[in-house]
Amino acid sequence: MKFAVLLFVAGTLVAASPTNFTIASRQDPADLMIFVCDQMPEVCHNMCYGALCLNIGSALTFDNPSATDKRNRRKAAGCIESGGNRCSVRKGHAAGFQCDEYPFASSSPRGTITDRINRCVPAGENSKQGGIINAFYRASFCKGGPCDFNVEFSNAGNIAPCQMDCTDSDNEIIGPGSGTPAQDGDEADDGTDDDGGNPEPTGTSKKKRVVTGARHHYLTSSGVEIDIRGIARIGQRAVTVVARNTTLWDEQAKSHAYDDENDESQYDYMLPNLEVRDDVIIAELS
Ligand SMILES: *[C@@H]1O[C@H](CO)[C@@H](O)[C@H](O)[C@H]1NC(C)=O
Ligand SMILES: *[C@@H]1O[C@H](CO)[C@@H](O)[C@H](O)[C@H]1NC(C)=O
């Protein structure tokens, strides 16, 4: 008897869903933050490697962390090291790079794997990523946070880890994890971090995990094509931030004065030039 009732309820939901998918899916917390990867290929490499190759996953929570929490997360990712991190000129790295973390310091993974990783990326790409994240956090459903979202990728066809090709770690390092908290003022003046003489973390890129799950190809309502590991739902929200004037955005990103101690609002001046496309998934392409 109970079984029959359950069947009836399930049948009703299935029948109702085609006409009502938008309302239902907008209650789904796993809205999608889409990165258009030809705008920032090196940064996308880092996100894809963490999300897909190391199975940190793409499900993140923006939890409005304090400056201290963010500093500790950057340290856990390996971006705060004695005398400047590995991407700094002080450590012999070429100029113009920054230490990029995944997950973002403003966020935590919702999955079971809590590793944080880092990669040295061109500073301009890091600034573009910051501008996009800031626009997303301020937009519609997130409203300044907190909020849950999934990071997904567009135009990432030639970035190996975005295609779940994890054969080459290519400068990806897993951070030392949470150890001693970072200290106030643990920041180098050259835009990299300095933990004031604590021992160097010994990062490793060897902990590669088994990659699972097929990639699916979807189209959003404004014509953005995205690749997703797993299944997106028709009607699911997918937010893409694109520059109105890409020349201006390149200029802004290249001259951005990065401030680790400041929150995402340091990118507010980019907002007028960024179009937030509050799309939904309209079709599965393959
Ligand atoms: C859509 O879903 C809402 C909320 O569940 C419900 O109130 C509404 O009647 C549904 N509309 C249709 C056309 O089924
Ligand atoms: C785009 O930005 C550049 C650089 O600031 C500017 O020179 C150009 O006029 C802008 N283009 C348009 C169409 O506004």
UniProtKB/TrEMBL annotation:
State the source organism's domain of life.
Eukaryota
Which residues lie within the region annotated Disordered?
170-210
**Deoxyribonuclease NucA/NucB domain: from which residue to which, for each copy?**
47-140
| Pfam family for this entry, one | DNase_NucA_NucB
Q: Is Cytoplasm among the key words of this record? A: no
Sequence ranges of Acidic residues compositional bias: 184-197
List keywords of the entry alphabetically: Signal
> Which residue positions does the secretion signal occupy?
1-16
By what name is this protein known?
Answer: Deoxyribonuclease NucA/NucB domain-containing protein
